[in-house]
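Tokens in:
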């Protein structure tokens, strides 16, 4: 596997040195049966457990079901914020902490962790099985240097959610592709709002990346070159993305808290009296709960187009499971991957949390079809097939932070923003500017 110069594993270790020294390296390393190893799985937080749900829920439930006579799997929670999840794991892995066996990773961190040698190689035959049972979009987000380096557990994509009563009033045909310009104009003209994620955090970079890719461009290309990747956001596609952000920010269709909006706040705004449209992840349906009035008025369709002549590239999210390179139980952890990411567990996890499977076979499961409308399951699969992942670069965290700084607040975005952000990203990658 090609290794990239500059800020690789050793550089990260040096940069994180002070934090590592302060980090707590204790974890639950032994089970009640001292002869049976305990695998420690660091997990991102699951959605809230329903009050009436009995038993283990979400990823802890998977850990319980996948524990065997050979090993027990226990979970340790990571922070809510994806960037903080990355920081905590990097601190421990840079210290070569053996108390991490398995970890839940956002796809956007795949390149960084693989390039830093933080991940145990998945054997070719095992990786081949994972690839065969997984949709192409999630496979791309789980691969580095043409190798599958983590195993997809669930995949996520954003849909355009809308109020059926609002679009009926506005006279919009949602059976046809719609553009950002169309929904912003419709919302503004009918006292409605368009919900997005535009706080200064990763969610804003997700929106910008989807807008750029939806116009046929990329933020960066040649990501395998690491620091020498080509910064490509100063383009016609970048300009089209800036136009959309600027248009919404200056429109009465913007939610009042646009500059600090995230997944939760934009959902709340959508469920208010003025909520018309919302781009958000697939758990929105499950979050609607048992409120029949909300469900009856809830519509969904593919992510909006940036430009009329280019198909949209919906954001790709989800969680992949990696095995730590410093685990003392690598073989057992690799074995556990098979169970953790099995079709059965993907289905049950989707039923419980609303986070959809990474495998197309899981969408044929009767339990999933009983939980969700077939039209929603079809929309999820189609969006995952067409998804535009954020660049799988070892330096995505730097690139993302540079974008957030250049494009925030949304009200500051102008025709000059793509060029300014390209310059800043380049200087950050060259080590000439600090974030």
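Residues out:
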């Amino acid at each position: 596997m090609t290794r990239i110069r500059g800020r690789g594993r050793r550089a990260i270790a040096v940069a994180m040195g002070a934090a590592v020294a302060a980090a707590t390296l204790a974890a639950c390393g032994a089970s009640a049966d001292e002869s049976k190893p305990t695998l420690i799985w660091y997990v991102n937080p699951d959605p809230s457990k329903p009050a009436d749900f009995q038993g283990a829920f979400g990823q802890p439930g998977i850990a319980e079901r996948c524990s065997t006579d050979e090993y027990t799997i226990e979970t340790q929670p990571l922070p809510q914020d994806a960037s903080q999840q990355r920081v905590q794991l990097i601190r421990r892995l840079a210290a070569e902490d053996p108390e991490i066996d398995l970890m839940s990773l956002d796809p956007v961190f795949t390149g960084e962790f693989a390039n830093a040698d933080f991940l145990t190689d998945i054997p070719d035959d095992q990786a081949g099985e994972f690839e065969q049972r997984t949709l192409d979009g999630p496979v791309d987000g789980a691969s580095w240097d043409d190798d599958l380096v983590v195993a997809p557990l669930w995949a996520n994509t954003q849909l355009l959610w809308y109020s059926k009563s609002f679009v009926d009033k506005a006279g919009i045909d949602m059976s046809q592709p719609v553009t950002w310009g169309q929904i912003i104009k419709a919302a503004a003209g009918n006292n409605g709002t368009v919900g997005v994620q535009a706080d200064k955090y990763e969610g804003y970079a997700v929106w910008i990346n989807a807008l750029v890719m939806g116009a046929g461009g990329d933020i960066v290309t040649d990501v395998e070159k690491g620091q020498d990747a080509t910064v490509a956001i100063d383009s016609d596609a970048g300009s089209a993305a800036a136009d959309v952000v600027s248009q919404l920010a200056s429109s009465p269709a913007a939610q009042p808290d646009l500059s600090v909006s995230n997944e939760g706040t934009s959902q709340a705004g959508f469920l208010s009296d003025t909520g018309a449209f919302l781009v958000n992840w697939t758990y929105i349906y499950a979050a609607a709960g048992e409120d029949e009035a909300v469900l009856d008025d809830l519509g969904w369709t593919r992510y909006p187009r940036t430009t009329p002549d280019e198909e949209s590239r919906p954001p790709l999210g989800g969680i992949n499971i990696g095995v730590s390179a410093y685990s003392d139980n690598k073989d057992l952890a690799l074995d556990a991957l098979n169970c953790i990411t099995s079709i059965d567990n993907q289905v049950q996890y989707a039923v419980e949390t609303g986070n959809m499977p990474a495998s197309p076979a899981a969408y044929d499961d009767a339990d999933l079809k009983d939980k969700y409308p077939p039209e929603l399951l079809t929309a999820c699969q189609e969006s995952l097939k067409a998804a535009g992942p954020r660049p799988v670069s070892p330096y995505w965290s730097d690139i993302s932070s540079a974008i957030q700084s250049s494009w925030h607040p949304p009200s500051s975005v102008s025709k000059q923003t793509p060029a300014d952000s390209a310059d800043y990203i380049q200087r950050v990658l060259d080590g000439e500017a600090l974030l």
